[in-house]
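Hi W., the uridine-diphosphate-N-acetylglucosamine complex you wanted:
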Amino acid sequence: MDNSGQNNNERIFITGGEKLYGKVNISGAKNAALPLMALSLIINEDFKLSNVPDLADTRLMLKLLNDLGIKSIWKNGHVNFNGIAQIDEASYELVRQMRASILILGPLLASQGSAKVPLPGGCAIGSRPIDLHVMVMEALGANIKFDSGFIIGSVPSEGLRGGKINFPKISVGATESAIMTAVLAKGQTIISNAAQEPEIVDIVTCLNKAGANIVGEGSNTIIINGVEELKKLQHEVLADRIEAGSFAIAASITMGDIEIKNIIPKYLESFLKALENTGSKVEIYKNSINICAYKRPLPYNIFTEEHPGFPTDLQAQYMTLMSIADGECEIRENIFENRFMHVPELIRMGARISVKNQTATVTGVNNLKASKVMASDLRASMCLILGGLAALGTSEVDGIYHLDRGYENLEGKLSDLGANIRRSR
Ligand code: UD1
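Structure:
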């Protein structure tokens, strides 16, 4: 992420070799909180979110919304939103720092009838185009043009109207854009080849509580019957399945035993199956899981896929686990074309990995070595922290501002489980 100026000098030091034990509470999901917060542009009165994770990205989204004129109060994970946007132009300084800023485009068009949004920045994990978001806006009747790095949108006088959206490729963000833009459009919208991620189900649950008429969330066809207005409501942000998966790997890689609480286990099904195949013991309860491991992991091939497949956001962390596996495995990345930037850093820690096209071949080593490494993106930063937990000696992880985008109180949570970890400012 181009987050220049944010905590650039901070580093994390980890002395590895401690087995992690205990319980950890999982925070609200960043990837649900960001689109949910953007709904404040179309839910104009008394919109309350709870379980909002305190992260660089959620703070940035709030700034972006405040900058547009939305009023908010944030206290202990609760955010109350009120009011309507006063302007239709989003701040370049803020948008360039976070790709998810594109999520405000549709709600701004729906509420203001016009929008001027800079082309977004974000993690450097591929080219990450926005053509599908633009396709959505046009299918719903908006006019879109590009000028000097801005997306400029306008809505005809008769307003947005429902339409058929058949995605040529599955996109989480574009599916969210379609839902958020169509909810107040006149008539029916049918989204085919929709993303099925739990975060999409969470947004639809929230919107339906506000009076929307949406069915099919969690399947590949979502039908939205436009409504005139959305009413005040309170909604709790879904738990972060990626944070939960990261702690599960922390248990496995340190041969520890962790109870991971406040989650919906079924949303982690394909990941947990893979983890079980590496030899970890996985116990699943109603709102928690328990992960423990007694020996070195076994190698097990995975490929990333849209939900319900193995999530791309856990690929880097899983690779760290496989780097100490008892044998060789293949990890194929199918979602993003440039999501192996953690590989050279893991190699610095002694991992044996070779990459060909979209496939990494990982040959497990007995132990990782403590090293000085640099995080290149959000999930890569967690993969290096996991490497540090497993390596003997003290590792230094730089580029920590990536971590702060998506993991709430990570050092605190890991310390409570027995990790030897500290941040230096
Ligand atoms: C979201 C998540 C991110 C996760 C990703 C895939 C948020 C805030 N971020 O990102 O953590 O890694 O889903 O699970 O929820 N694409 C296009 N054109 C577009 C949009 C996307 O070609 O207009 C492509 C992307 O380049 C990528 C694929 O579609 O290859 C999937 O991306 P998408 O699902 O859109 O990811 P995001 O919503 O950006």
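Residues 56-68 form the longest helix (13 residues).

W.
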